[in-house]
Every structure is written in C-alpha cells, then in structure tokens.
Amino acid sequence: MSLFLPQKSHAQKKVSVDNGYYITYPDRLMLNLYLSQKFAPFSIYTRNAQELNYRTNSKLTLGAGFAINGLGLNVSYGFKFLNKEKGRGKTKGLDFQFHLYPRKWALDLLGTFRKGYYLQPSTDNGLNLTENYLRPDIKRHVVGFSLFRVPNSHKFSYRAAITQNDWQTKSAGSILFGGEIYRGSITGDSALVPAKVSNNFDQADIKEITFLSIGPGLGYAYTLVLDKHFFITGSAIASIDLNFSAEEISGDKKKKTSLIPGGVYKGAIGYNSDTWSISANITGNALYAGSAYSSKEYFLPTGNIRFIVAKKLAPRSRK
C-alpha cells in the first residue's frame, strides 16, 4: 500500500518546473496496475564465515490503484496462480510501506510484522540441508521512518522515478540529508540458531533480539534521462546510527550500545510520457542490530520490488 502527499498546483493543466526539468500533473487522474513483492529477511553471521540467511515466503501480489492531486492509494493481493507452493512454509502478518514525496522531502514509513521464516539449502550455514529448513515460530517486527531533505527538488523529482506522478524530461540529481529511526525485534519459541550448528555461532541459544537505531544520513539521488522518455534512477543514503540492542538467553538479557551503519536505497528504470508510464523500481532499507555476543551485527534489510504500468487521464474539458 502506498500514499502520496499533494503538492501546490496552479491553474494550467501541467506545470513545467525550472525550464522543463520535470513536469507535474496536479489535475490528472492516474491509474496504475502493478506486480509487487516485498522482502524482510534477516541474517546471523559468525567469524568462521558461516551465516544463517533467514527468508520469508513473501507473496508476489497483483495490485491496482489511483492518484490525483498528488494523493493516491494502491491495493494488492497475492493470488494463488502467482504463488506456487515450493516448500518454503507460510509467512503471515502485516507489512506496510508508505513512500511520501512532497516536493522538498522524501519520507519513508515502515511497519513489518512477519511470522514464518525458512533457510535454503546452502553449504555456508553448516546444516548440510537437502530441503528448506522451516521456522514457522520466528517473528520479526520493525517500525520506523526516515525523513530526508531534497534541496534540488526544483530540478529533480522522486515522484517521476518511483510513482510516475511527474515526468522527468531532463537529467538531474540532488544531495539528500536527514535522519532515520527504527525500533524492532526478532523472537523465536526456541533458539534462533539451530542446535546442529550452535557450536559454530557466538549467538547460540539467543531466543530474542530487540533494538533501537537512530541517526543522521547523507546521500545522493540522480535520474539519467534518455530522449526525454527513458530514465534510470539511483538513490543511496548512508547513515551512522546510535544502536541500542538487547539479546535474551533463558530470561537473561545482555545489552549493547554501539555505532552501526544504516541506509536507504531506491532505484528505478523505465519509460515515462505525458500519458503512459512503464517502469520497475526497488525501495529498501539496510537495517542492522548490534550483538553483545559477537563482533558481527544482525542484518535486517527490508524492501519492495514493483513493476508498474500507469495511465495519466486528462480531465474533461468544460463546455
């Protein structure tokens, strides 16, 4: 589900911004059809180069939505014909990601409440699996937001790249600065590290991890436009977060305060015009939680991949 904030509009049907770097459509109804897949894995690392990469069985969803005057809503559903059973178990819960782009800001709101993970057969986790290792008991909850200023917003448009409400007709970019804050937890009915490989991991016997991260970030975003219509956008923000984490073993908690990395990234590629848009994009967060038992942090990325076909409908002229 996505929500977009309105921008100030003018009387004309389309507004050219700074000599045609991008065009806005304040009075057009935009309809879109899209495929979307969200991801929210987490990884546990060891000094012996082994790792446990837990994944969710996230559904590929088909959705539709609309936007007008910068305000819109999308709704999607994971139909069975798009999601064949592959022995990955079931992932349940709620996952919402709101990406709001008022002209001078980029605001990303995150809330993931997932239950049900699995490990794929891999030679680097020490389990020597021949089929997926299911953990329906593992839960991951993360909430938070990032807010970043877009100083060159009169030339660069996030909306043109990610939501296609605007049309970027000339290449441009912008420095980004701001901050983020996230609160999360990972819990299991038993230890997160399987007993078979517990001797290989300093984080053995841990059943719960909680964390709070807050810190500033700095980055850059750029859209390369080819022949006015074809575009490639890349956006990366690196942050340094003050992280407060706690790990629980048999009712005892061990806490740690540390400085850890973080980040927000976005990418898009596609075709945009006055009436049609076809694009693919990815939005995501690189989240970490410190460990009092290991020098390796826990890694909890979150994101969404989408393929979108959109149509901009001009309002009917009044007689």
Q: What does this protein look like?
A:
By secondary structure, this protein is mainly β. About 0% of the residues lie in helices and about 60% in strands. The protein has 1 helix and 19 strands. It has one helix spanning about 160; strands spanning about 15, 20-25, 30-40, 40-45, 50-55, 60-70, 70-75, 90-100, 105-120, 135-150, 165-170, 170-185, 210-225, 230-250, 250-270, 275-285, 290, 300, 300-315. Strands 3, 4, 5, 6, 7, 8, 9, 10, 12, 13, 14, 15, 16 and 19 form a 14-stranded antiparallel sheet that branches. It is globular, with a radius of gyration of 22 Å. Residues about 1-15 have low confidence and may be disordered.
Low-confidence stretches: 1-16
Percent range for β-strand residues? over 45%
The string of secondary-structure elements, in order, is EEEEEEEEEEHEEEEEEEEE
* Mean pLDDT across all amino acids: 89
Strand count, sense and barrel status of the largest sheet are: 14 strands, antiparallel
Rg from Cα: 22 Å
Terminus-to-terminus distance: 37 Å
**Structural category:** mainly beta
**Tally of alpha and pi helices:** 1
By DSSP, the count of extended strands is 19
Query: Quick one: overall form?
Result: globular
Q: Report the helical percentage.
A: under 10%
